[in-house]
Amino acid sequence: MIRVVVADDQAAVRAGLVMILDSAPDVEVVGEASDGAQAVRAATSLRPDVVLMDIRMPGVDGIAATRELTAAGIAEVLVLTTFDLDDLVDGALAAGAAGFLLKTVDAPALVDAVRSVARGDGVLAPEVTRRVLARLSARPARPAVPGVDDLTARERDVLGCLGRGLSNAAIADELVITEATAKTHVSRVLAKLGLRSRTQAALAAQDAGLVP
């Protein structure tokens, strides 16, 4: 069962999200929060697999809460917001969010995204994916990424796969390993590079020249 905390400052929106998620046989909403501080407290106490996080909330916003949760390794964070502004997308991903979706997403896609994040994969809304990729391709060359030289050959292969946006299952297929082994390699790559999410790893792979 995938355990989820839902954080949104609008009670009606929270209720709708809870209804959608609880309708899935493998998802259980274990807590709710109306701001970022409550989200951090709820996640710290309840230890969910995923926190579904709005960005613009009173007090501590969703990006600050995401940064705190991912830095402590408490839960994966899937951002769900009304706004697709580039600074919000970049801020959420830099804070370590595993995914970014808009509230226009339909119910089945939302549930699938929660499942993907829970199993360690990343998710980006189609509306923002092209813009993120365009910004990546326009980035100037950067210095060597600290820690990449310390990766094993297999871990460098995995980092390259992350740079191409592959899921754990796809990495396993490409490298002819089990999905569990792929997940272990991903965790080691993130730890060695001091990264919080697969998206940050994808950026590191780009900077390290591991993506064709």
UniProtKB/TrEMBL annotation:
SMART domains: HTH_LUXR, REC. The modification 4-aspartylphosphate is found at D54. The keyword Secreted does not apply. GO terms for molecular function: DNA binding. GO terms for biological process: phosphorelay signal transduction system; regulation of DNA-templated transcription. CDD domains: LuxR_C_like, REC_NarL-like. InterPro entries: CheY-like_superfamily (IPR011006), NreC/VraR/RcsB-like_REC (IPR058245), Sig_transdc_resp-reg_C-effctor (IPR016032), Sig_transdc_resp-reg_receiver (IPR001789), Tscrpt_reg_LuxR_C (IPR000792), WalR-like (IPR039420). Residues 3-118 form the Response regulatory domain. Residues 144-209 form the HTH luxR-type domain. Keywords: DNA-binding, Phosphoprotein, Transcription, Transcription regulation. This is DNA-binding response regulator. It comes from Pseudonocardia sulfidoxydans NBRC 16205.
